[in-house]
Amino acid sequence: MGIFERYLSVWVGLAILAGVFLGNIAPDTFAVVAGLEYAHVNFVIAVLIWVMIYPMMVQIDFSAVKDVGKSPKGLVLTLVINWLIKPFTMAALGWLFFKVFFVDFVDPQTASEYIAGMILLGVAPCTAMVFVWSQLTKGDPNYTLVQVSVNDLIMVVAFAPITALLLGVSDIQVPWATLLSSVGLYVVLPLLAGIVTRYLLQKKGDDTQLNAFVAKLKPWSMLGLLATVVLLFGFQAETIIAEPQNIALIAIPLLIQTYGIFFIAFYAAKKMKLSHKVAAPACMIATSNFFELAVAVAISLFGLHSGAALATVVGVLVEVPVMLSLVAIANRSRHMFAEEANS
């Protein structure tokens, strides 16, 4: 691991500070960039995510993907956490904190909107950033692809009914254009580009060119992550400065949820005797959120300046630094997993 990867958390911290600073001194510039979107999918963010995940897609060997079905435990773990546990623990924590612990600090209407935003985060498992976390934990890229793909397919049919159930309403309007275009932009198109690239570089049956190409792309993946952080924090810089106390209140249950779900998944992976290259990405997928979708739905249902929209934005703010800490925990626990264990 080079010095850049070793101190990635430091660079991310500096990127967060840079985003907040630039967003406050040049809000109009960030407003213009934020307006470059379709169906709540920002084109600039999409390009940066491409920069992040394209190198990982090039590494996916489809000759190995077909063998994932022979070791389904990791996939089962991901699905159980994402669809049978995570949405409900998020809803429970939201209710506990904003209807009990923080009842004297937030008015009932705003509290309900905060809970709704948290629920939207809990029902939307991550799609794009998972490939970054998988790479940082040296996860199996082929297995990660299958886990993400299956989650995306389930999300298409399960997101609306689970959200409706937990919000207690029956008229949830899922922005399908956002959901489908996000999956297409962040998974399908980069994957196709990776397949074509891999095919062209392996024409002679030699991996030398492929390995050299991937090595050249690796720094760009990390730069894409840092640029994304700067933009995300720049978009919300004025809100961060204007409402720090509310952001702190929302962040507390989100942090408990994130670390709690990670350790539930981690414990289950250990008990299931998964290999580290499958267990680490499974825990990351179970923990992180599809924040683009959550933010879009919150804005569609409750409005741009609602408590629900703010809660989903706080989810964006805490996700990157928290996930980096979980990457560090996963990497330091490698010795606890048998690499040849059943996955």
TrEMBL record:
<comment type="similarity">
    <text>Belongs to the arsenical resistance-3 (ACR3) (TC 2.A.59) family.</text>
</comment>
<dbReference type="Pfam" id="PF01758">
    <property type="entry name" value="SBF"/>
</dbReference>
<dbReference type="GO" id="GO:0015104">
    <property type="term" value="F:antimonite transmembrane transporter activity"/>
</dbReference>
<keyword id="KW-1133">Transmembrane helix</keyword>
<feature type="transmembrane region" description="Helical">
    <location>
        <begin position="145"/>
        <end position="167"/>
    </location>
</feature>
<dbReference type="GO" id="GO:0005886">
    <property type="term" value="C:plasma membrane"/>
</dbReference>
<dbReference type="InterPro" id="IPR002657">
    <property type="entry name" value="BilAc:Na_symport/Acr3"/>
</dbReference>
<feature type="transmembrane region" description="Helical">
    <location>
        <begin position="38"/>
        <end position="58"/>
    </location>
</feature>
<dbReference type="GO" id="GO:0015297">
    <property type="term" value="F:antiporter activity"/>
</dbReference>
<keyword id="KW-0813">Transport</keyword>
<feature type="transmembrane region" description="Helical">
    <location>
        <begin position="281"/>
        <end position="302"/>
    </location>
</feature>
<dbReference type="GO" id="GO:0015105">
    <property type="term" value="F:arsenite transmembrane transporter activity"/>
</dbReference>
<feature type="transmembrane region" description="Helical">
    <location>
        <begin position="7"/>
        <end position="26"/>
    </location>
</feature>
<keyword id="KW-1003">Cell membrane</keyword>
<dbReference type="InterPro" id="IPR004706">
    <property type="entry name" value="Arsenical-R_Acr3"/>
</dbReference>
<feature type="transmembrane region" description="Helical">
    <location>
        <begin position="114"/>
        <end position="133"/>
    </location>
</feature>
<feature type="transmembrane region" description="Helical">
    <location>
        <begin position="79"/>
        <end position="102"/>
    </location>
</feature>
<protein>
    <submittedName>
        <fullName>ACR3 family arsenite efflux transporter</fullName>
    </submittedName>
</protein>
<keyword id="KW-0472">Membrane</keyword>
<keyword id="KW-0812">Transmembrane</keyword>
<feature type="transmembrane region" description="Helical">
    <location>
        <begin position="222"/>
        <end position="241"/>
    </location>
</feature>
<feature type="transmembrane region" description="Helical">
    <location>
        <begin position="179"/>
        <end position="201"/>
    </location>
</feature>
<feature type="transmembrane region" description="Helical">
    <location>
        <begin position="308"/>
        <end position="330"/>
    </location>
</feature>
<feature type="transmembrane region" description="Helical">
    <location>
        <begin position="247"/>
        <end position="269"/>
    </location>
</feature>
<dbReference type="InterPro" id="IPR038770">
    <property type="entry name" value="Na+/solute_symporter_sf"/>
</dbReference>
